[in-house]
Amino acid sequence: MSYEFITVSIDETVGLITLNRPKILNALNLQLVDELVAELERMDRDPAIRVILITGNEQAFAAGADINEMAEASAIEIMKRNQFAVWDRMSLISKPIIGAVSGFVLGGGCELMMNCDIVIASETAQIGQPEIKLGVMPGAGGTQRLTRAVGLRKAMEMLLTGDPISAREAWQYGLVNRVVPVEAYLQEALKLAKKVAKQPPLAVQVIKKSVHKAEDLPLQEGMDYERSGFYLLLASEDRKEGMQAFLEKRKPRFTGN
Predict the structure, then answer these.
(1) What is the C-alpha separation between 189 and 185, in angstroms, rounded?
(2) Residue 255: in which H helix or E strand, if any?
(3) Which domain CATH number covers 235?
(4) What is the rounded CA–CA span in Å between residue 216 and residue 226?
(5) Both 29 and 105 in a single domain?
(6) Nearest-angstrom CA–CA distance, 47 and 30
């Protein structure tokens, strides 16, 4: 497919989506988010793709929402757009999503980053939710996912001041997985994506869903969900291949069946 505000490429079994509005720091307008989610869903259906990687550029992953679309719109107009419904579809992607972020990761950019399952950040990344400085608040999960990620006190500080935190501080709070030099962040993310892509696809997807359920379910219900996934994977061809390869001391050949 052809898009205006994202570019798409494939590297072996990794699908790479690059946000592409560099002149305005990859500001997230409605069309860009629509394109992004459409491509995420397409890649999720493509059996040749096992992991999805989302990135921007060194200057900005995404500096927030496109304020030009909101400045003059009324509350009723924005409500009728139902613009966050498309964001909800991101949580339905079954394949792992890795974020490679650098520079400005603000507002909607931070919310997009938090929709990723694993995040590699460049040491230049500045991460935050500055919506309060515009008289509003996050609407695509910023108050909810940030609180779950960094805890109530730190989330409250970030949301009420609007001040960003550095990549290193984000790592200390568990908001990102790894901080690397800016010249290496994309390659590091791609390397990690390829490593995950070599794992059995069904197990990867069941694990992803189980981990996300841990945020929503009480412990015993989460344990029951995990065990259901475990039993389900016992019926897969990849389980047979993985165990046989282990016994034969060879590398497994996972097919996703």
Answers:
(1) 6
(2) none
(3) 1.10.12.10
(4) 13
(5) yes
(6) 28
CA distance 89 to 157: 29
What was the pLDDT predicted at 149?
95
The β-bridge relationship of strands 6-11 and 14-19 is: antiparallel
Element (H, E) at 218: none
- Assess if residue 152 is contained within a domain: yes
Q: Domain check: are 160 and 220 in the same one? A: no
**According to the model, what pLDDT value does residue 138 have?**
93
Average pLDDT, the chain: 94
Radius of gyration of the chain from Cα atoms?
19
Distances in Å between the alpha carbon of 218 and those of 25, 64, 156?
A: 40, 33, 24
- For tokens 């590091």, the residue is 188
Domain count, the chain: 2
Indicate which residues carry an active-site annotation: 65, 108, 111, 131
